[in-house]
Amino acid sequence: MFSGWRRFLSRDLVRQEEAPPVSATPGLDSASSIVMPKPTCIQYDNFSREWMQISQLDNFDGFRIEVGKPLTKNFNAAHTLLLGTASKQQPYAYQFGPVFQTEDGRLFMMGKTSLDGLLNARVVKKVMGPYCDLRANMSSCVIEPSRNMYEFSKDLNFKRWCTSTKLVWQGIWICNFGFSSLVTKNLHLGGEVTYLNLLSRGASMGTLGFRYEDNGNTLSGTVGRTPDFKNPMREEPLHGIRLQYARRISERVSLGCEYDWSYPEHESAMKVGYEYTFRTSRVQGLLDTAGRVSCFINDFKGFALSGVIDYMANEYKFGVLMHYFPAGENAEGGEAPIM
Questions:
Q1: Any bridge partners for residue 109, and if so which?
Q2: Vertex 297: Cα angle to 303 and 274 (nearest 5)
Q3: Which domains does the chain have, with CATH numbers?
Q4: Which regions of the chain are under pLDDT 50?
Q5: Distance (Å, rounded) from C-alpha 23 to C-alpha 34?
Q6: 320 within 8 A of 304, measured Cβ to Cβ
């Protein structure tokens, strides 16, 4: 449905079975993690950020080892080894990814290369203080050229309104523009338009959404229309409604659910998720009406477990992760700071 293209445009374009580069210093995985004054308005892509925090699980299969090394105060290197995975053509894979970030957090660069010929890179640059973010994402594969992707985006963040503009090339040109406005202290309204320059003819998609939060409760929803990509000969567009609800019960426990309905197919789906955060670990789980159950347990000290059971497809995938980040030394010879 239309939500698939929206998720494609709003996330890091890295396949789920591939582990993204892991920063050797916790808290440096994103330039947005730097503490600085932030505008009040929220980007349209993040209207359901509480639900995305609960439902986005880093599921994998097989055995995964991650080793990180802080080479300097601002530069880290991470190595990832995957063994016994069924997600790739070979049962093993090796990935290397450097990460660089300035002390003020205004420039963030990361990369990843693997044995299967895949190269990913990302650059985030803050300009105009916290009000403008420039991003560039690149994915190139020597073996499968169809996986090549290039994305450029600009986000404007102000107190009462935000905009996001994206230009993507993945065999076809994709243009995306999103807008959000803080109407009241608790209510956001926004919309998004996407244009795809298909070979046969152009196609456009549009959504309108809202976000309401109050006392730990967050309700968000979108309504939109999209072409029927399963039946290109059909001229009548499809319509869909998606609602998300997240409840922060305490500082440690969060619950959430998502409901999706489409017309005229009258297809519907529902997901229920939970997140429990301990002092040194986090437990996430997800259950949907398609017969899929998933869970991810992460111990911040260096151990993680992943499990996915798809009863309809009769698939069972389990994974074990061990990550080790030794304390390195910076250029001055002291111990690298933990941020």
A1: 100, 123
A2: 160
A3: 2-324 (2.40.160.10)
A4: 1-37, 329-339
A5: 14
A6: yes
